[in-house]
Write a structure and sequence with these properties.
It is a single chain. This protein has 214 residues and is mostly helical. The protein has one domain.
Length: 214
């Protein structure tokens, strides 16, 4: 029976991740389906381009809390021995392949951020600082997102192999490292179209509204 309950818990987290924040916010506040504009992505970056910075931030926070909610539920509600970070992966899968939006979702960044925020605050801060620095430097969100994913994975990897006390300081264990490996892979795979546009010189930049962004 424990297996049945744990499967139900995972499905719940997948459904939470599937909530299409960008679609909901766009419809409520602008009567727009953001999938019909810009990159067509449901993530916060496209939401900011289509709906404005403020609504884009709201979408990002909602997406972040999808990952955070999975961790909080696993730690405080679910009766299971499965490490909470694995339920976070289920939420990220839901965000990337949402059942409520024809399995076409975001790029795993914000929801992964929620998983990390509620699991290891120090590593989340490393990722946040990396994102800010790279966005300011390059003005390209896809590069910043990739840099964040790499830095977080690298930080977890270093902490794990250095061992105590660094592992305790950063709240890192084997399960966290495995999760970061999976989330890093998601981010890379979801940004392949961005990398192609970068090579062609057609990637969108912060503050630049060309290349078909409406």
């Amino acid at each position: 029976m424990d297996f049945v309950y744990e499967a139900i818990y995972i499905i719940i987290c997948y459904f939470i991740g599937s909530i299409p924040s960008g679609l909901i916010v766009g419809k409520i506040f602008r009567n727009k389906d953001i999938r019909n504009y810009g990159s067509g992505n449901l993530g916060s970056t496209n939401a900011a381009r289509v709906l404005g910075i403020t609504l884009g931030i709201i979408v990002g926070l909602m997406d972040l809390m999808k990952g955070g909610s999975a961790i909080l539920l696993a730690e405080n509600v679910f009766n299971t021995d499965i490490p909470p970070v694995y339920f976070g992966i289920a939420a990220v899968i839901g965000h990337v392949f949402p059942i409520f939006a024809r399995f076409k979702g975001g790029k795993a960044v914000a929801t992964s951020g929620g998983v990390i925020l509620f699991t290891s605050l120090p590593i989340f801060c490393i990722g946040l600082i990396t994102f800010i620095v790279v966005v300011i430097t390059t003005r390209v969100v896809s590069i910043a997102s990739t840099a964040v994913a790499f830095m977080i994975f690298l930080s977890a990897l270093i902490a794990y192999f250095v061992g105590e006390p660094l592992m305790s300081t950063l709240a890192v264990n084997l399960h966290f490292l495995i999760t970061m490996s999976v989330l890093f892979s998601f981010v890379i795979l979801r940004h392949i179209p961005n990398y192609k546009r970068l090579l062609l010189g057609k990637e969108n930049m912060v503050g630049n509204n060309k290349h078909g962004i409406k």
